[in-house]
# Entry
Amino acid sequence: MKIIAGNWKMNGSFQNLQQMIKDLSDIDTQNTVILAVPYTMLCTDSGKISLSAQDISAHTHGAYTGEVSASMVASTGAKYTIIGHSECRQYHGDTNASVCTKAELAISNGLIPIICIGETMEEKQAGKTLEIIESGLRESVPANVTSGIIIAYEPRWAIGAGITPTTDEIAHAHELIANVLSDMGLDGTPILYGASVKGSNAEQIMSIPHVDGVLVGGASLKSDDFIPIITSVK
Ligand code: PEP
# Structure
């Protein structure tokens, strides 16, 4: 059983979500299907899909115009929130420290944070991939947490680029993540791979050791693309 999480980013509409819920209603899968949609689409009746926010505020409440808190997301019935997505790190100033704060707020409000880590192209070229992964984990995951989180390894240079790392690169990264999580007392934490996952590579990627599922951007927008990923593994 794997976790298949889609991330719609700033795409789609409530009508598109209703259609996706309908399209997925009769697929035969034991996998956990999560869809991270814009806040305006979070709703209680999402059928087989568990809904997720794409980010939460680092504050509990107050004068933070435009922000949405963990408790507000939880009140919609959503079960998850992505935190520290590369686009939030790039455009909204998220750092490992703010991701850690957000993860604490998510957990204390009953949400499962999907914490994203991964290296940029510059960091990869400088040979820093494993260092960035390890510091991302140690600095983004709250110290007192023992379960109830998901990690997503997303090489930032491959997101939306149509290219994926080699099988060896993914295997190496996920093995390191599993070892660091174990050292942090977080054995068994699901580890997703994200970046340019599609129907044609999903099964192969999910056969790599320590890949417990995938986080899918572009290919989660249409059911014709998303369903083959969900059904590629049992
Ligand atoms: C993402 O944004 O999390 C992602 C993995 O995007 P894509 O699948 O489009 O590379």
